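Quiz preparation item.
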């Protein structure tokens, strides 16, 4: 009952250690560019953790967020990217650092930039941990470039994505833990322990 190879969704799970290292490199890149933001604006949900880490390394106290909806759960795209939760801070005449975890299509970053411009900031620069070349918006700062598309699973949504994938597998009539583990490898290139699958299954509603 494996999916045909052409329908495989290749995924890569990142560790907290890897993300923390990339965030540190990103902070140094920004500082070396001599851009000194007055405030960091995170794009929720993905940019919240990277933004907080950047604030730590760059000694920036002011952090706020907006929420943009575009991607759903586990690589499921929503429709057009839209601002769901608006800005709740004064950024007029301030230098802004807009932060997300990754670029994919570029829609989220584009919508966010245009939205923030309406508040008349002194400047806006963008920073992400990973930049996919599939994005038609290139951020000002990024640590790594991804040329071969794959779905990136950051530590802050591992459980969410794995739960969604396992639910989809179960909908195909696959229920044994070993078979689910096999399908995760076949469909998503994900190799996790039986223990982890068992923990997720204990929370997945039948």
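Solution:
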């Amino acid at each position: 009952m494996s999916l045909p190879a052409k329908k495989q969704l290749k995924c890569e799970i990142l560790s907290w250690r890897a993300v923390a290292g990339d965030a540190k490199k990103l902070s140094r890149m920004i500082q070396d560019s001599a851009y000194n933001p007055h405030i960091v604006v995170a794009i929720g949900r993905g940019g919240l953790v990277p933004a907080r880490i950047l604030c730590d390394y760059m000694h920036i106290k002011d952090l706020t967020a907006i929420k943009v909806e575009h991607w759903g759960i586990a690589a499921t795209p929503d429709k057009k990217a839209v601002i769901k939760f608006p800005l709740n801070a004064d950024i007029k005449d301030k230098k802004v650092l807009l932060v997300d975890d990754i670029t994919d299509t570029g829609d989220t970053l584009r919508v966010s930039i245009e939205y923030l411009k309406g508040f008349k900031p002194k400047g806006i620069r963008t920073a992400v941990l990973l930049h996919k070349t599939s994005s038609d918006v290139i951020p000002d700062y990024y640590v790594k470039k991804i040329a071969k598309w794959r779905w990136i699973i950051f530590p802050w949504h591992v459980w969410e994505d794995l739960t969604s994938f396992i639910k989809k597998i179960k909908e195909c009539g696959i229920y044994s833990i070993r078979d689910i583990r096999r399908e995760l490898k076949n469909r998503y290139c994900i190799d996790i322990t039986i223990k982890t699958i068992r923990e997720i299954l204990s929370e997945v509603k039948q």
